[in-house]
Design brief:
The protein is mainly α. The chain has helices at 3-15, 23-49, 51-59, 67-87, 91-113, 117-136, 143-156, 168-181.
C-alpha cells in the first residue's frame, strides 16, 4: 500500500461514522449534532466579547500560563468547531477540540465550587455530547459521510498515473509501435 492509499484510507476512517442505516436513529443523531453545535457558538462569542475578563475570571484561576492566548484558543475552538460539528464536517476533530474545552471548563468548576452538580451539569452534558461524536463520528446525514463515500468510490477505481493512458486504442497503438521498432 503506497502513501497515497494509506492517506486515503486514514481519511476515510476519520470521516466515516460508526452507524447502522436506521433512519430514525440517524435523524435523532443529526438533531443532537446540530443542536449541540448551534448552541455552543454563543459561548465562543461571549468569550470574544470580553476576552480579558474571561481570561482573568476563568483561565488564570486554573493556573494556565498565557491566559489571553488560551482564552482565544478556547473561543476560536468554539467558534470554528461548533459550526463544523453542526454541519457534520470534520466532525471528529471538531468534537475533540470542543470536548477538550469542556474538560477544562469542568476542571474550572471543580476548582471553584467542588463537585457541585449545578456548576458542572452544563459542561458535563456538552462534554458527553462531544465525546459521543468523537467516538462515533457525524452520522449518516453529514458532510463527512458524503466525503467518505466519495473518497471510497474514488479510491476503488484506480486512477492512471500522469502521462499513462489505458484506453484500448492507445494499448494497440503502443503494441504496433513496438512491433515497428523491432
Amino acid at each position: 500500500m503506497n502513501l497515497a492509499q494509506r492517506l486515503t484510507a486514514t481519511t476515510i476512517a476519520v470521516l466515516q461514522p460508526n452507524f447502522t442505516p436506521n433512519y430514525l436513529s440517524q435523524t435523532a443523531w443529526t438533531i443532537l449534532r446540530v443542536v449541540a453545535g448551534v448552541v455552543m457558538v454563543h459561548n465562543g462569542i461571549d468569550k470574544l466579547s470580553n476576552i480579558e475578563s474571561f481570561a482573568q475570571a476563568y483561565v488564570q484561576v486554573i493556573g494556565l500560563p498565557f491566559p489571553i492566548f488560551f482564552s482565544y484558543v478556547a473561543a476560536l475552538t468554539e467558534l470554528v468547531g461548533a459550526p463544523l460539528l453542526a454541519l457534520g464536517f470534520l466532525t471528529r476533530p471538531a468534537a475533540l477540540g470542543l470536548f477538550s474545552t469542556m474538560l477544562v471548563a469542568m476542571y474550572h468548576h471543580v476548582l471553584v465550587a467542588g463537585f457541585s452538580i449545578p456548576y458542572l451539569e452544563l459542561s458535563m452534558l456538552y462534554a458527553a455530547c462531544f465525546l459521543f461524536f468523537v467516538v462515533n463520528g457525524a452520522g449518516l446525514f453529514s458532510v463527512d459521510t458524503l466525503l467518505a463515500g466519495w473518497l471510497s468510490a474514488a479510491s476503488a477505481s484506480p486512477v492512471p498515473a500522469l502521462g499513462v493512458t489505458t484506453s484500448a486504442a492507445s494499448v494497440s497503438q503502443s503494441a504496433s509501435q513496438e512491433a515497428a521498432i523491432k
